[in-house]
Amino acid sequence: MELPSALQAVRQRLSAYSDGESRFVRLLLQANQHGLEALDKACTLSLAHGGCNDTVILDILNPTPKEFQDECQRLHLTSPPDDDCHGYNRSYLSKTAILGGTAYVL
Prior knowledge:
Elements: H1 5-14, H2 20-34, H3 36-49, H4 54-61, H5 66-74, H6 86-92, E1 96-99, E2 102-105
Antiparallel strand pairs: 1-2
Helix pairs in contact: 1-2, 1-3, 2-3, 2-4, 3-4
C-alpha cells in the first residue's frame, strides 16, 4: 500500500529532523483515531500553509475545544499596558547589565 502524496511530502519534510521518523510515526498513529483520509487532508492543509511539522498537523486533527477558545477571547486586555519601564531599569539594574556574555549599557 502506498501512502497518499501529502503524507509522503510530510514524511520527506520531517526527515530533516533528527527525530523525524518518530514524528512521522506519531502522525501515522492518528490514522487509527481519525482515519487516513482526515490525516491526508490535515497534511495537505499544513503543506499549503507552509507550517509542516507534526505539531501543526496534530493541532489540525485535534483542534482546541470551543469553550477554551471562548475563554481566551474573554480574557483579552481592553487596553494594553503602556508603562515606561525606564524607571525600573534605572532603579534596579546596574549601569551595565551582562546578558548572555554581552554588555549592554542602560
